[in-house]
Design goal:
With about 325 residues, the chain is α+β, with helices and mostly antiparallel strands. Helix content is about 30%, strand content about 25%. It has 2 domains: about 190 residues, Fructose-1,6-Bisphosphatase, Chain A, domain 1 (2-Layer Sandwich), CATH 3.30.540; about 120 residues, 3-Layer(aba) Sandwich (D-Maltodextrin-Binding Protein, domain 2). The strands form 3 sheets. The protein has an 8-stranded mixed sheet with strand order 4-3-5-6-7-8-9-10, with helices on both faces. A 5-stranded mixed sheet has the order 12-11-13-15-14, sandwiched between helices. A two-stranded antiparallel sheet has the order 1-2. α1 runs antiparallel to α2, α2 runs antiparallel to α3 and α4 crosses α7. The chain binds 2,5-anhydro-1,6-di-O-phosphono-D-glucitol and manganese (II) ion (2 copies). Pfam families: FBPase (PF00316), FBPase_C (PF18913).
Length: about 325
């Protein structure tokens, strides 16, 4: 029960000693994300009170209207990571290109790059439904002391050093992994401290929830259509329950706790689905595997895919191991 009272700050310090990241750089980086998360959380919670909702007028590289909170969250995460001189590069869903950070005093000595989806599920903001932030951390592959290049960002997901998300829900949680399991921390808003509330999170091997935008059914590949029919069939422990929030972070979070599978397949409209490999699918896939779950594009392990572009999209199936494997079986059979 001692764990229950452990703060995220204490947890980071304790685990820094246990792992090889003894320079403390990764710990400081997670600390900076913790800080930015609190700032964004404060703003998200005010969304209904102040005039912050609605499109900011810009269109991001994906061709979508940016909501004001997307812009705000993007700025806060970039500002925090830049000001604290903690990373050498940042890529964000909201930025066309990656950002190279020139640390004047330390001459580019930082070794980590961060990729973020600053506000995930942004269409939910003005209807008071949970949104999130997703982050993914890599060690740079180009030499320390030089400006970062695209190569530092286009790494396979299996090279991630850490990944996590913040869910701004009924309570705000920060959930992350450094490759040694997944731990979840809940924010006590009264004092602004995250506490370890969900140690060693695990996907149940089987689940009863499937999460997919069924409105797109007609456009899905046959394997996915067949899987959806399988979920709905009355047989054994089926039919399953359908739950879809439309915010990957929240759908993933629920499925990890209760057991379920999230699907964003390709369709006849989007040949690679919608979700972005680098700052949505890879971090969630890393978390899933660290929590005894699985993530696939329907055929291949997400973490093994070699990225070719910063904003590329990929079909995504993620969640309880046996459910993801069942989807893969349906995909194979429909080939
Ligand atoms: P974002 O708000 O960062 O653009 O991400 C939204 C993503 C994901 O979070 C969600 O699961 C999915 O888009 C919902 O898409 P549909 O509305 O097409 O179902
Ligand atoms: Mn997103
Ligand atoms: Mn987003």
């Amino acid at each position: 029960m001692a764990n229950k009272k452990q703060t995220l700050g204490e947890f980071i310090i304790e685990n820094q000693a246990a792992f090889k990241y003894s320079s403390g750089e990764l710990s400081s980086l997670i600390n900076s994300i913790r800080l930015a998360a609190k700032v964004v959380n404060h703003e998200v919670n005010k969304a209904g009170l102040v005039d912050i909702i609605g499109a900011a007028g810009d269109v991001n590289i994906q061709g979508e209207d940016q909501q004001k909170l997307d812009v705000y969250a993007n700025e806060k995460f970039i500002q925090t990571l830049t000001n604290r001189n903690i990373v050498c590069g940042i890529a964000s869903e909201e930025e066309d290109d990656f950002i190279s950070i020139n640390s004047q005093d330390e001459n580019h000595q930082n070794k980590y790059v961060v990729l973020i989806d600053p506000l995930d599920g942004s269409s939910n903001i003005d209807v008071n439904v949970s949104v999130g932030t997703i982050f993914s951390i890599y060690r740079r592959v180009t030499p320390i002391g030089t400006p970062v290049t695209i190569e530092d960002f286009l790494q396979r997901g299996n090279q991630q050093v850490a990944a996590g998300y913040v869910v701004y829900g009924t309570s705000t949680m920060l959930v992350y992994t450094t490759g040694h399991g997944v731990n979840g921390f809940t924010l006590n808003p009264a004092i602004g401290t995250f506490y370890l509330s969900h140690p060693n999170m695990q996907f149940p091997e089987n689940g009863h929830i499937y999460s997919v935008n069924e409105g797109n059914y007609i456009h899905f590949p046959q394997g996915i259509k067949n899987y959806i029919k399988y979920c709905q069939k009355e047989e054994g422990d089926r039919p399953y329950t359908s739950r879809y929030i439309g915010s990957l972070v929240s759908d993933f979070h629920r499925n990890m706790i209760k057991g379920g599978v999230y699907l964003y397949p390709k369709s006849s409209l989007n040949s690679n689905g919608k979700l972005r490999l680098l700052y949505e699918c890879n971090p969630m896939a890393f978390l899933a595997e660290q929590a005894n779950g699985k993530a696939s594009d329907g055929f291949t392990r997400i973490l093994d895919i070699q990225p070719t572009e910063l904003h590329e999209r990929v079909p995504f199936v993620c969640g309880s191991k046996n459910m993801v494997e069942k989807v893969e079986e349906f995909m194979r059979d429909a080939q």
